[in-house]
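Standup notes
- HV: blocked on the assembly model, inputs below
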Amino acid sequence: MPESTPVTVLAGGVGGAKLAEGFARVGDDLTVVVNTADDAQVYGLSISPDLDTVMYTLAGIANPDTGWGIAGDTVAVLDQLRRLGQDTWFTLGDADLATHVFRSDRLRRGVPLSMVTADLAAALGVRARLVPMTDDPVATLVDTPAGRFGFQEYFVARRHADTVTALTFDGVADSRPAPGVLEAVRDADVVAIAPSNPFVSVGPILAVPGVRDALATSGAWRVAVSPVIAGAALKGPAAQMLADLGHEVSALAVARLYAGLIDAMCIDERDRDLAPAIADLGLQVIVTNTVMGDGPDRERFARELLTGRDR
Amino acid sequence: MPESTPVTVLAGGVGGAKLAEGFARVGDDLTVVVNTADDAQVYGLSISPDLDTVMYTLAGIANPDTGWGIAGDTVAVLDQLRRLGQDTWFTLGDADLATHVFRSDRLRRGVPLSMVTADLAAALGVRARLVPMTDDPVATLVDTPAGRFGFQEYFVARRHADTVTALTFDGVADSRPAPGVLEAVRDADVVAIAPSNPFVSVGPILAVPGVRDALATSGAWRVAVSPVIAGAALKGPAAQMLADLGHEVSALAVARLYAGLIDAMCIDERDRDLAPAIADLGLQVIVTNTVMGDGPDRERFARELLTGRDR
């Protein structure tokens, strides 16, 4: 692949960040469209967990142990908030908090999230274009037998332990794609759907009016990477959500969710026996080690995906 | 003085904090009414410098070197804000920043500043009643030959180096005293005006509608402590402001500013020769060492003031 091949990644948090880093190490024309339906107000600050995870990863400052937050970060603000009687259910490191202070201030002054994100990414030396799916507020609401929760409450405070009965992306019907999103999906040579949660990470991106159509009609070679490996998710509640929402917990089920939008499905070697069924959906199947380790391993994976395209 | 003698202090920042701590060590019925006209939005956070200086001092966590901020505080958030390209002209420590995050969040949700302040003070173990002069927004604007500046810009960014030609307390005419302020001034046995800047610290408190009248007609013994000693201010621009605004730079000039509102004026030993002229204003004069050092020395000073009352 030439270094200037335009690649667009549709990304949630950690899985999206790893794949984005892989492509960033291969080429220099990368756009990452990131889910913002997990965004929330925490302690009065505007946090964008997926954007920040991708941004910190591409900036080379992500905490390698957690996948989110900044490496070596301290928690002096959080400790003091706790002393002030604040329920500190959501961990924010000090350097990470600077991102939220910076973002909150500008959003309140009317700067669109896409511009704030571009400024943050530039300041941190990120060369890829990092774009929120929309500048409009969208909020994932999770219905469970215990009631309806905002995503961060479901995910962090309740440790995604509830059965999910339905998902709502509040505000998405009225949202518009952020500047550059539709072009990035339409005009790229490669569009990769990251191994992020199909329901709550990729789902909201595709639900922004215009994005699904842009992907369905894109001239790009479109590949999705399964976040499910051998019946489990590497991270987060994807497997549980598949089960809760009536799907089989497998890469095949993920392929079915994306059928009509992609040309190829990338699955892990451990799921090799699913390849024929996925091929029966009319999809090219790429089988490889989909577990991305450090930077060079992420690059290895991105190159293998691209080899699939050239096949 | 019985421990339960009700004392009210009208306070700005560092000088007010020292006097308040002195009284807090003497008795247990202390109300501190604090200037909020220095309050500002910094990095999108609501800061109340004078309230925080008094609060941290009464909580025993103030930075003894600066008089403001929290002892031993770190600056990880500020360092990262700088990396993000933010002009970090206003230093905020990490633990200090927690106060501002806590306050900003609640103010935005409509909680009055007086309630937020009470919650913060209680969480930090402050037993005195700490009350902002008003819950309404008031902003000191400083006119100088270089233009008009917000107070923090004049004070911090421009290091109070400009000649002050006029002061405006924007919003004060429409402000109401915070709950308890008028009662604290009217009903105390002792009201002490701290050795704070008469123009920009005590001035705004007295400009809140009702406060000046409450002080003028209070049944309390009312004493003011001169922030000017031997023609200079211990801290800040009080001396320069006296000169800029056409006053003599002396404790006598301060006494003249407060005449009609106080019964007694406390001046430093070095200004002993001003005592007759101050007495000619109809004021009792207390002459002592007005430079307050550590906690026990602040208590010493508070006791000396009260001895003046009992004389």
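- HV (later): unblocked. Residues 139-170 of chain B form one domain. Chain B touches chain A at residues 43-45, 70, 73-74, 76-81, 83-86, 94-95, 97-99, 101-102, 104-106, 108-109, 119-120, 123-124 (CB under 8 Å).
- Next: hand off to the docking folks.
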